[in-house]
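Lab notebook, design round three. We kept the backbone fixed and only want residue identities now. Task for the bench partner: fill in a sequence for the structure below.
Input structure tokens:
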């Protein structure tokens, strides 16, 4: 089986090395040395702007992909930043900047929010995604492209090394 020639398309598993930087060139995230990220293409496992740009690429190819916040992790919404009195937080919680806590919405769902600031009598909670509002610069190199298994397609994600184990 010659998997080298497969192009990236829906329902294929892609192994890629990546470095994600912001517009200033500061590295935000990268794949671990020797263990590329695996994802199932066409199943929204990665941000839409990146998924679209990778379509049609082959193993051995590299690309620099710039993704706007709209096609990345969304724009920052200031109404998603809330000031909450310390008295409304669980009494056993010691709030620290960067900590993520669950907050109940008016609809009764629990959503993760980040503690952005801690003051004497209140905290500032930020429900925006950590990378919201950021233009993403992905430096990508494609390591392998293969067809997904039936099971992977049913689950909507990759199994085995670099993927889900269950
Ligand atoms: Zn699974």
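Proposed sequence:
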């Amino acid at each position: 089986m010659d998997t080298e020639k497969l192009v990236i398309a829906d329902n294929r598993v892609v192994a890629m090395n990546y470095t994600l930087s912001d517009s200033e060139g500061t590295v935000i995230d990268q794949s671990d040395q020797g263990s590329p990220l695996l994802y199932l293409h066409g199943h929204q496992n990665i941000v839409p702007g990146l998924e679209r740009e990778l379509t049609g690429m082959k193993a051995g190819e590299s690309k620099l992909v710039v993704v706007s916040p709209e096609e990345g992790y969304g724009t920052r919404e200031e109404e998603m930043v809330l000031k909450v009195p310390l008295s409304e937080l669980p009494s056993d919680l010691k709030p620290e900047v960067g900590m993520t806590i669950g907050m109940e919405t008016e609809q009764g769902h629990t959503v993760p929010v980040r503690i952005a600031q801690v003051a004497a009598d209140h905290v500032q909670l930020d429900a925006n995604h950590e990378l919201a509002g950021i233009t993403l610069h992905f430096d990508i190199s494609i390591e392998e492209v293969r067809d997904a298994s039936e099971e992977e397609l049913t689950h909507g994600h990759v199994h085995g090394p670099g993927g889900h184990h269950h």
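Keep this in mind before ordering anything: The domain at 78-126 is CATH 2.40.10.330 (Thrombin, subunit H).
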